Fold:
Amino acid sequence: MYVPKESQPKQGGAAAKAKDGKRKMVAQNKKARHDYAIIDTYEAGIVLTGTEVKSLRQGRASLADGFVQIDGNEAWLHNAHIPEYFQGTWTNHSVRRKRKLLLHREEIDKLGSKVQETGHTIVPLAIYFKDGRAKAEIALARGKKEYDKRQTLREKQDRRESDRAIAAAKRRQRGA
Structure:
């Protein structure tokens, strides 16, 4: 019996799997967006051990105190808290060890030169899985002053109030 090629089941394997690029968010650093003015963002791979990956897949991580440092020609993520894996044995990882970030040489050079300027730093914004690989979103940032933070909050609140007023007007218009 002849079966057309379109209706035959696809063969398994890595080549047949679709790469849709969806992100599975693990941790976000909302405080960084509040405390820093984000200048530029980068996506970096993270070098992890097996128990760290398993712990991240459970959605357990914190970037609150994290920062990125350029040492020589390598980028390192410091103070990112990935808790120990519950089912891990003596091979479990240390919770706040420094982790290597995988970036292109040009990106590391650019970040290194920008950090040498006064007031610039590199902060982690998020850790997520993309196509099954752990990634970190890092940002070149400049610290905000206290009045900048208040101004940002004020703008956010004004935007929220205007959106509410517009939505209420639309509701009244539909009801009339």
